[in-house]
Predict the 3D structure of the following.
Amino acid sequence: MSLGRNIYKNRLNRKRLNKGDFIKIEVDVILSNDITTPLAIDAFEASGITKMKAADKAVIVADHFTPNKDIASAQQVKKVRDFARKWGIRFYDAGCGIEHTLLPEEGLVVPQDIVIGADSHSVTYGALGAVASGVGSTDVAAAWASGEAWFKFPEAVKVVLNGSLEPYVSGKDLILYIISQIGTDGALYKGLEFCGPVMKELSLDSRFTMANMVIECGAKYGIMEADHKVVDYIETRARRPYTLQPENYSIDKDDEFDEILQVDCSKIDPQIAFPSSPANCRSVYSIEKTPVDQVVLGSCTNGRLEDFKKAAKIIEGRKVCRDLRFIVIPSTALIYRQMLESGLMKIFADSGAIISPPTCGPCLGGHMGVLAEGERALSTTNRNFPGRMGHKNSFVYLANPEVAAATAVAGYIAAPDQV
Amino acid sequence: MSNKGIEISGRVFKYGDNVDTDQIIPARYLDTSDPEELAKHAMEGVDEDFAANVSSGDIIIAGKNFGCGSSREHAPLSIKGAGVGAVIAETFARIFVRNAINIGLPIIELSGFEAKTGDEVVVELRRGKIKNLTSGKEGTFTHFPEFLSEIIQAGGLMESVKKDLSEF
């Protein structure tokens, strides 16, 4: 029945569910942010519903336009903050961190959870063995009231990661490669379930990156088994008791999938997703010289401690190319502190990087690094749609953190072994 | 508030594949939730003149994966706020589908219906019929499954939830 679909099935206590069946299901976490919560508040208040069944499951993170970029965003965050206080909803204010890095760090998501988030990258929590899906603001308002969400019971695709990882290749490259193979709608409405020998090689941070980007091929969720790396991570953090997948279960051995996708990871080089689609990928070693005006290292995709450690190794003792801006964004306050304490912050500062407080910031063209007309950025973020980072005629190239560091030094897109 | 039986007629605005939510409503406009404000910038990333040219009842026809990208409900809200009567696409991204249903923007999954920008089109939602008055060509589509129709008939997700909650 597949790992993800089994979570739905067990929750409903139903023996049989078919692809395409519509279900209403109790959820464990209801996430929203400073951009999506105002609409949820409007929907909730307009409905006349006066009780919230699931305020204790709600989490709101002010991370997109924070620290507030202007008066309008300040008003918006104030509206959200006041609402959270009124209803006793857990609220993380400016600077706490980017939602999808923060929630796992805070122990708010555990294996076997069903998570909805009014943010498309809510799929990130699949790395912890949860079924996590992006939804809209009205879905969030409805779940606050009822504790439930509706879903179409999905098809599931087994993604087998074979081979081993080449140098400078991490989760970002694997997921970009997979998206480039199946297209931006290749997993539309479906669950992706990851397994294979390479899973053991992948750090939890790399897995978060992969799960984070399954939405870029349209997936409903992207799930991985909760192995010892997950248990090590959550056992000191989890705020709720949790169970793992059944003891004898493995995605590898499960043959109840609608499709199987075999991936030979040994053939994957560091990937560059060219404008303006995450599916438009090429090997970093196959591209012409491409100068960029800005490099962004951070986001819910690649703003975790391991990402900064890897990038710091490349940039230590070197200087950022004078022709570009290198913006480094730790994705939570904890990671910020860890970077200070471990000396990473000094490495980046010495190189000439701009170090930002935790924020989604430039990823969606919000603030803290918006692009002008004609400018190009290489970014460790998740989307390079037209105008994503600023002017509609600006261009974003997606890559992993080591390529970002190498590019910041070179001034043009480069692999770490090319600088 | 039922969409059943509603006839929608208007001019076609035709777009290609993968019209993403950053194009439908760029993030710089997400500092408001007001549909009228959002409508001023609807589709701006793919068609700067859309907001100025669109009239009530007009119909967007697009290719594959319409509404991919972010979960922002501002995207269907800006389209609805602009007066668009229905969005027709070969396929829709899943969060866009949820949002459209939850806020009551009619969407129709339909491939191969021939129409170009400016054509006059009539859609009969209940009958699942579409006609291009300019070219005379007709098409059919399947209506929503019952589960989703019930949400739409209730007047959107919040009304549907309210009804459920009052039954306990």
